[in-house]
Write a sequence for this structure.
């Protein structure tokens, strides 16, 4: 089952360690994912949620006219390979969020995963995340069908003109992790 977890391992995000995909969902739900960040967290702040549970929350919020959207990042490499994208696509189709205007955007650092998501869910927006080096994307060109690039803030600080090169190719640039006021001003 797909779970909502930033890392492939449990070390940074829980009070446990090891690879997340070596455990069952029931085992993961017994771990504490809240205490590392929140003093004395409530039970719901400790428990890992599945993608299905999150999608149900989003659906209920949207039903209550809360304009929330969902960004799903597939993590690679992992032992499940393309099965991750296939399961995401099946779930989004089940929720009828596989159509234009749906409340979902897809992203990954993996070019293969981004291409697979394009084949499986051609109507959804995809973002290619870039971390260590602009590499072959330095010119602003992206894989076919991908209109958004998500570079690490450090890459933009090293090469601010990358934004202009990307925009000239009609691509949006969604920089991450922009947490400090000076970084927000820089990006604006």
């Amino acid at each position: 089952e797909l779970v909502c977890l930033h890392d492939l391992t449990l070390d940074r995000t829980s009070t446990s360690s090891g690879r997340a995909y070596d455990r069952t969902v029931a085992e993961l739900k017994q771990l504490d994912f809240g205490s590392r960040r929140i003093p004395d967290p409530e039970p719901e702040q400790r428990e890992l949620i599945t993608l299905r549970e999150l999608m149900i929350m989003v659906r209920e919020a949207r039903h209550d006219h809360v304009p929330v959207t969902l960004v799903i990042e597939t993590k690679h490499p992992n032992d499940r390979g393309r099965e991750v994208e296939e399961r995401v696509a099946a779930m989004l189709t089940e929720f009828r969020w596989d159509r234009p205007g749906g409340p979902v955007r897809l992203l990954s650092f993996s070019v293969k995963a981004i291409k697979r998501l394009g084949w499986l869910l051609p109507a959804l927006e995809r973002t290619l995340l870039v971390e260590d080096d602009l590499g072959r994307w330095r010119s602003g060109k992206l894989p076919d069908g991908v209109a958004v690039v998500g570079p690490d803030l450090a890459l933009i600080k090293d090469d601010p003109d990358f934004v202009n090169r990307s925009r000239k190719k009609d691509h949006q640039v969604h920089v991450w992790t922009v947490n400090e006021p000076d970084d927000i001003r820089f990006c604006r």
